Amino acid sequence: MRHGRTGRTPEGVTASRARLTAPPAWMRWLPVLFVAGLLALEPVTPVDWPVSFVLIALPLVAAFAHGPLVVGGTTVFAILFLGVLAGTPCCAGRSVGYLWDRHYVAAYVCTALVGALGAVLAAHRTRRERTLADVRFVADIAQRVLLRPVPHRVGDLVMESLYLSAAAEARIGGDLYEAVPTAHGVRLIIGDVRGKGLLAVETAASLLGAFREAAHDEPDLAALAARLETSMTRRARQLGGSETEERFVTAVFAEIPPGGGVVRVVNCGHPPPMLVRPGEVRELDSGRSAPPLNLGVLLGEPYHVDTYPFGPGDLILLYTDGVTEARDASGAFYPLMARLRAWDTLPPHDLLERLHQDLLEYASDRPQDDTAALAVCRTATRPAAG
């Protein structure tokens, strides 16, 4: 699921506590519908055992969406209503009432027992929902620390970010992005950690921390990539185990120098960025991609820095493979380039909003992988001072 608006604070996060999600309206009204259906059937059922006995189940029906107090009240109502139906001679063709008939007395007792069980189940469900809400709340806070909003504007650059998690309860995963204004220009990273779970989240946090520090220190993009490679290799060795070389991160590093009219790119085994300008959409792929981080020792060569024109009105889109590997019902991959050609005049915020909605519709609201995207556009004019 998506975490908040593009580049904004996650939705549903408050400063004080997590909020329980209200059940659907039809579920809250289910006890009323249950009783209404019983009243409709009771007069037309000519049997010795009238359908009023199904009122025994009413407390469990209430427990689906209500708390123990409501379930307790529903239990009392069910017992009283069952007595009213039992004592009414006209029900089910009876000539006399059966208020204290042994079968009805047994039904009263069973309803009370079922009500007690329903109250326990409702209390347990409420505790579980509160725990889940707290977990989501903590995960939202963790995401704000791990994937903090990128600067909306730096000089003549406008930036927006998007994150979608395939795990609805996890909220955060192994995809990462960051944009850091430095003396060398704005430096960007987008990456995808191999694997899932807490190990992937910890690896992403470690890589982002190293990037945020090194982006200010390293003089060029190749040196920045090499430093992150060293950091990832050190972390993999610290974790130990027999899969050290399988713990890697695909990533793209980009640098947009101030007023330079270019964008520099180092690709480490990641889907290439897209350059979008009116009438043109193309991949920034020179065919010289380096191995993913922590696998650079397999190459043993310096990182290649590719330079591309990046003028006013141009937009660069960095993304993870959760975008291009999204599938529709027929199994077809998401046609990112075709979509971008149709949206080539959209600013970063609108582009990512459209991408977000289109991905969910394309995958029928069931994304198979985490997705991150970072859009940066160079405006025609610099913002006014002050």
Instruction: Give me the count of strands.
Output: 11
Main β sheet profile = 6 strands, antiparallel
Spatial extent as radius of gyration: 30 Å
Mean pLDDT: 82
The largest beta-sheet arranges its strands as 1-2-11-10-7-8
* CATH homology group of the largest domain: PPM-type phosphatase domain
Content-based structural category: alpha+beta
Proportion in β-strands = 15-25%
CATH architecture of the largest domain: 4-Layer Sandwich
Shape: elongated
- Might you state the CATH topology name of the largest domain? Phosphatase 2c, domain 1
Give the uncertain stretches in residue-range form: 1-17
Protein name: Serine/threonine-protein phosphatase
InterPro entries: Bact_Sigma-Reg, PPM-type-like_dom_sf, PPM-type_phosphatase-like_dom
Transmembrane segments: 26-45, 105-123
Keywords: Hydrolase, Membrane, Transmembrane, Transmembrane helix
